[in-house]
Amino acid sequence: MADIIRLLPDHVANQIAAGEVVQRPASVVKELLENAIDAKASEIKLIVKEAGKTLIHVIDNGFGMSETDARLSFERHATSKIQAAEDLFNLCTKGFRGEALASIAAIAHVELQTKKEDAELGTRIKIEGSKLIIQEVIATPTGTSIAVKNLFYNIPARRNFLKSDAVELRHIIDEFQRVALAHPDIKLVLYHNGNELFNLPKSNNRQRIVNILGGKTNEKLVPIQEDTDIVKISGFVGKPEFAKKSRNEQFFFVNNRFIKSPYLHHAITAAFEGLLKEKMQPSYFIYLEVNPETIDINIHPTKTEIKFDDEHSLYAMLRATVKHSLGQFNIAPVLDFERDSNLDTPYNYKNKQAAIPNIQVDRSFNPFADEKKTFGNTTTAPRYTNYKKESTEGWESLYVGLESQSNSSQFSTENIEFESEAVTSSLFTNEEPRETLTYQLHRKYIVSSIKSGIVIIDQHRAHQRVLYEQLLRNITVSEAVSQQLLFPVKFTFSTSEIALLKGVKESLENIGFMFSDITDDTIELSGIPSNISESELQIIIEQMLNDFQGEIPDTGFSQTDVLVKSLAKSMAIRTGKKLEVEEQQALVNNLFACKEPSVSPFQKTIFITLSVDDLDKKFI
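Below the sequence we write its predicted structure tokens.
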């Protein structure tokens, strides 16, 4: 039998390795940004086209590479950060994976330009599908410029699995923000299709958070700080009143590397116990510094999961630190209004003491004294000098004769006439009293009678179905009713959330939202749908953004479907709300006027029926 085991060619091995390193364009962004940071760059520019599918270009002003290093960087298992296996447990750098550039070059067109500071000329290398096309000497600035074009051009199946541009761009922004939050001392700029999305100057941690998430974030942050022999904890947590349902503002950094840790996340939520509403998530930006020898960061291909030597101690310290900061600092809501200068103390009275009032008392005044008695020769209480007390003598005479008059005929109720309304006959003389056709059970279900028995309806799911079809019809025909607001309302969101709102702006306008202004971090609404109250507006928009954060569908019907489902879920009446009989009957009538009354937009049963035979069987 012939031998069947053989070595894979290098280009095939590189493509297989690319499956671990590069899942989507955001993976390339992460690797290239980390390499730029390891090169000690102080300014990094990221240029993206078509969400990274066409171009990912990273330019830095780091120390660059020599001609030999530039060529070797594209070889498998080539790295400048590991020399022995023990180095894996004492890593202080970012991109140490030896297959990164080799894997990227195997599935894309890569062009590298680099120059060291002490060199006169730099190097240009062009590789397509692991094949070296050009290597030449050029004049280029100090640092490295690497452009990745046509990602997955030679693996069409992988390219077909990529999501829409909106989804892939959101993942790129997530990676960009994680790197930016971990390194506030580096200037970072992001361009997408020629538009500048982020321009983050050098700053500290707090300013970097505000620059990314918007100016209103500053008042939401509570600083935390703790130094121990095991870990050094710093960063910020959000005030409980600003908690959201989404987890978009939750960041852990260990030695300036973003990680995901459900175990440490539980420590934060335990510290917020009793301070958050149900299903609300706290915001936090926490930086941990530990000994590199006490962690293992190579247990996951993307290096976002870390194994700690002493997780229990770290859990307790983190929980205690956050709890202490929430108690130490003022976590009450901040009043956001302009100070009224009319309430300020005038300068002439600023340093003056309050004068003690002069109280004058007429000690000779007696309210029970006889009216003929006059006051003495005193001038201390002139306000009482004209006081005159009425005589109370003979008060019994006021009731004389009432007993005899009560028996007289003038007080008899027989002579009292009452005005009565004229009773008009009904339009239909033989009309029977109207019966109640519906009944609300436990403020959750609506019970209604039908010919064959009864139907039990889930009021929340029923209203979801009604709203879903109504909103879908409004978007399709663009005939939604909008109520104008007397005063436009403003809401503050992060840059990525504003980008989401811009993507669905047209669909929201067809539903009834009217945008008067959209900036980089705020939106202003001058009109809202008629069936939405202004008090619920922010909750509905945040819920919609939260639903879109999970997965943004392609433009078209799928995007509209997700939008309408989210709004229907937020606007539907909740379990526990009492409905009047008219409201119950209107909901039942609207439900059975829908095209699909049996299931909710999320494919859950809306109602069940019980026939008379089913009820009879219960009594056998």
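Residues 332-336 have pLDDT under 50 and may be disordered.
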